[in-house]
Amino acid sequence: MRSLVMKFTLLTGALIFAMTFMLVTLESVSAQRETRNLLIDRNIASLSSAASRLADSFSSRDVEFVGAFLTELRDNMGADEIYALNNRRELFVEALADPNTAGNIRASAIAVASLGAGDIRHELNGTTLHLAVPAYTSQRRLSGVIYAQLELTELVASRNAMIKRQALLALFALGVFLPLAALLVGRALRPIQTLTEAARHASSKTLDTRIRINTGDELEVLANAFNRMFARLNGNLKRIHRLAYVDMVTELPNRERFRKETERVARKALEEDLTGAVLFVDLDRFKRVNDSLGIGEGDRLLEMVGRRLTEVVRGCDLAAGRMDDPSMVARLGGDEFTALLPSIDDSADAARVANKLVDAIRLPFEIGGHQVFLGASIGVAVFPQDGADPETLMRHADLAMAHAKRAGGSAAQFFEPTMNQSAFERLVLENELRDAVQKDELVVFYQPKVLMKDGSIAGAEALVRWQHPTAGLLSPGAFIEAAEECGLIAEIGDWVLRRACNQAASWRAAGLEIPVAVNVSAMQFDREGFSQSVIEALEDANLPPHLLELELTESVAMENPERVIEQVQPLRDKGVNFAIDDFGTGHSSLAYLTRMPFDVFKIDMSFVRNMTTDPHSRIVVETILAMAKSLKLETVAEGVETAEQMTMLKAQGATLAQGFLFGRPMPYDQFMEHAEEAFVPRAVGE
């Protein structure tokens, strides 16, 4: 603002100086014009008097007299050159101050004199006066012309004096009026200065300022508009800051705020050689609670979890005396939270805090009149050794949390460098698996299912394998988990279903009507249009529906029984069979079992493998077989590897068996050869 006042003051001063200078110049020009005319008239008079006295001398050609006279006249007038020309305009006499210029001056004298004999002529070039005066005799006859060239030194002195006077008057006016102009400009621009200061404060995010201008004009209106604008901007800025850095559900810091704080603390730890930790907290079983109670109650539960985590962390800070740089709890999104411990003595401190957080989350929550139980899987990354920037620390803590969750959850796990390698290998595996689906590197193997009564082949289970270009043939255990995590399991399941239907149709064309069983993943089954995709696969392969059996795990079947009934019944009406796979490992409801549209119970291999040595496993197998017999369902015992197991299962009434005792999973061509030797057609309903 000072710059604006200075500019206006300087502009005013320049105007004052210019106006003063102009007025003085006008006055001086007028005075100089009078001085010039006076000098010209005086010299004309002197030269005219000389011309009158010399007129007769021109006629008598008295050169000596005229020369002496002109020399004296030159000295008296201060002229540079004086010439006398006769009436024929021929040079008569010359009186020169500098003889070297005579030729030029003479030419000038003739030129001036020739402008019109008999008339007084003068020219003023700057301060040099050229003057020609005719000389007349007493009889009024033109006898010659006198020409003089002289410098008007008085005019130069007058001009210099005028310039000095102009400058002095202008400076005097500037010295008198400039301070007054500065004062007036400063007062006039003071409201604008106030507005400018307010705008400068606003640009530095100081929006709570109040502009007070009482001028009663447009500036006061503008100031009031600024005040209203600042108030709105201040409110909006606070809301934006809240949206940018605060989680709306829990009122905790959000991901961005946590990232910035972690960056600050990690930088400080490097500079001051400190140790801290980042804890990544993921709730166990929250999705089930959220689905059952609804999103609103789920948000309330997250809010309660956030408060409980904050209380634990603050309590640990108080106990350790670290309140100058307190720990922070933030919510990243969903059911994921983080805790930042800026300063710890060693890793054991972080472990203690993590274990207290796990214990706190295990305590029941009261939501909507219900007691809700959760768990927490926590990953711990210690800085600076596990990373020095927020992204690395959070990624490492997330990896450690994933290991804790895979180990069963409700526990804490520290990050280890090998986890990075595992994560990288998993990423490579997922990318290669995507290419495998596109490049048709998957193959289907078939494991025979046999009748207990005679050992003949009664069906086959389709099992996917991956013909890896470098690692060779991979079993499902090497890639199915990765396929589930990256969302490819449904696509792989559809591919296996179509391939199995086509190859079962090929068996049928060769005279082998062997039912094929295909596993269905939860993601594949939950997808809209699942039933229609199965029907299309059967129609494309021209395979009768009764030769297809779909297997659902017990956990998938019991997660949403009503959904299962809705999806399965249309296919059963067309003749497709359904089996509950891994039966006995889940949590089946007897009430739903009587309504579930299934045809087969597949007894999990863990019970079959241990039934000869573990009484509890044998009792489970006997119970499942008795239940299936009562419900008039077939049973398939998986994992039969010994004749003793087969004898016990046959004695308890098992109808079908599957395992290494009867054959390992084999490619399509090999299974065809094996089936042609052992296949015995079954009668309908057998």
Structure description:
With 686 residues, the chain is of the alpha/beta class. The protein folds into four domains: 2-158, Beta-Lactamase; 210-243; 255-415, Alpha-Beta Plaits (2-Layer Sandwich); 428-678, TIM Barrel (Alpha-Beta Barrel). An eight-stranded mixed beta barrel has the order 13-14-16-17-18-19-20-21, surrounded by five helices. A five-stranded antiparallel sheet has the order 2-1-5-4-3, with helices on both faces. The longest helix has 59 residues, at 2-60. The two termini are 101 Å apart.
Could you tell me the CATH topology label of the largest domain. TIM Barrel
Report the CATH superfamily of the largest domain. EAL domain
In percent terms, what proportion of residues is strand? Answer: 15-25%
- In total, how many beta strands? 21
How large, in whole angstroms, is the Cα Rg? 57 Å
The level 1 CATH classification of the largest domain is Alpha Beta
Number of helices: 22
Taking strands numbered 1, 2, ... along the chain, how are they ordered across the largest sheet? 13-14-16-17-18-19-20-21
The low-confidence parts are: none
Second-tier CATH architecture of the largest domain: Alpha-Beta Barrel
Instruction: Please describe the biggest sheet, giving its number of strands, its sense, and whether it closes into a barrel.
Output: 8 strands, mixed, barrel
End-to-end C-alpha gap? 101 Å
Structural class: alpha/beta
Helical content band: 55-70%
Q: Into how many domains do the coordinates divide?
A: 4
Shape: elongated
Mean pLDDT: 80
Write a compact overview of the structure shown.
This protein has 22 helices and 21 strands. It is of the alpha/beta class and 686 residues long.
